[in-house]
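Tokens as discussed.
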């Protein structure tokens, strides 16, 4: 019966090694997905910055156009 026990231990070791290899591959895939999401987030932040709303620059534009408005009021 000792032979059967060693075969069982060997098969259990192979099953555990296969599961560990599968989990290691999953970890590598998750790391790759994390890198992709980080670059995607950086791109989204750049797009959000480039398409910021008008109110952030509106006061300076209004100040620059004050002479035009004053001229139009005199007409």
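Sequence:
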């Amino acid at each position: 019966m000792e032979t059967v026990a060693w075969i069982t231990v060997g098969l259990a070791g192979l099953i555990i090694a296969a599961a560990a290899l599968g989990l290691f591959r999953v970890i590598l895939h998750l790391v790759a997905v994390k890198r992709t999401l980080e670059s995607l987030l950086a791109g989204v932040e750049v797009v959000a910055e480039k398409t910021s709303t008008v109110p952030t620059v509106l006061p300076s534009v209004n100040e620059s156009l004050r002479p035009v408005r004053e001229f139009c009021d005199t007409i």
